[in-house]
Cytokine receptor-like factor 1
Amino acid sequence: FFFFFLYVAIIYPQDPVLLMGSNLTASCWVHPDLGVHASSLFWTLNGQQLPTSLYRVLSPTNLSVTLAGLNASRQTSGDNLVCHNHKGHILAGSCLYVGMPPEKPVNLTCWSRNTKDLTCSWAPGGRGETNISTQYTLKYKLRWYGKEKECEDYTHTQPYSCSITRDLHLFTPYEIWVEASNQLGRATSDVITLDILDVVTTDPPSGVTVSRVGQLEDQLSVRWEAPPALKDFLFQAKYQIRYRLEDSQDWKVMDDVGNQTSCRLAGLRPGTVYFVQVRCNPVGIYGSRKAGIWSEWSHPTAASTPHSERLMSGSCDSKSSGDSNSTLRRELKQFFGWVRKHAYGCSSMSMKLYDQWRVLMQKSHKARNQDPKRKRRGQRRGEKEVGRVWRRW
């Protein structure tokens, strides 16, 4: 029934594409044999009847409507402008596409997963939304002698991205850009030049394990394996570790892990569950002078520190308990300050300093249990030893 009336009524222009703010005069022409006078017709836009003040009867078979200052289309499939007879039946319809030409795409960045592909992402320019169907095409070519090609794999999870998965060349720079086009215009991004070896990222480190360091209540040992996909490449990886308390969403990041595949976390809370993650940055693959791109974080691995015997031990002597707690708080404050200044990190020097600090603290504890004179002498010896440790390192 609907297709029958397509032959007896026509809207002109049919499916126009218009700039936002434009004016439009559309006409509904009906076949004379239909026996319908134009004055009995009415218009709707997206299901809403338009006021008759916008109509004009051009002839017994032609009714026009004028729309001023058109707003952007509500959806990329267009706004529905429909001509009806006096009973409300649809005679003809047209889609209005109202939008803007694309602006120059921005923030074009690319990365390569283990040198096996090249994925690029970008952002639409300006406000980003043209309100009409806009096509983005990623183009690339070898810098000096290559033929222009188009990326074909737009199935990446990001909305504005494409992956080049074959016929990639190493040691040769590429020129890459994005073209945006719709029925109102086109725009081209800036061209970026890159070598795939300069934008490599890896899979996250595998085999991450977190374990206790003996009965040390404030430490955990973290170990992991280098990304296997790059084992045959010449590169110097560097790693980052982040960790958080079980009941917290705030991660603490350690930047100075270097290229080793193990690390000791110090200054942790006794008897506490920690979640730990590791990520990798491949540096200088095949002699590249640029740092790589950080991988995703590994899956969280959890472990708990041992409970502190001093914190768990009780006392029936409220006075001695208070003195002990006061001493413990003072030592913990001193300890955490020391860790932040000297032992935050995974270098062997930091760990040796930390272990030396623990030995000095043990000597200090023994001094407290001696008579006052010997206690004071022990404290002075401990202070001198601390000074020697700092100077030595």
Q: What stands out?
A: The radius of gyration is 36 Å. The mean pLDDT is 80. Residues 318-343 form the longest helix (26 residues). The longest strand covers residues 273-283.
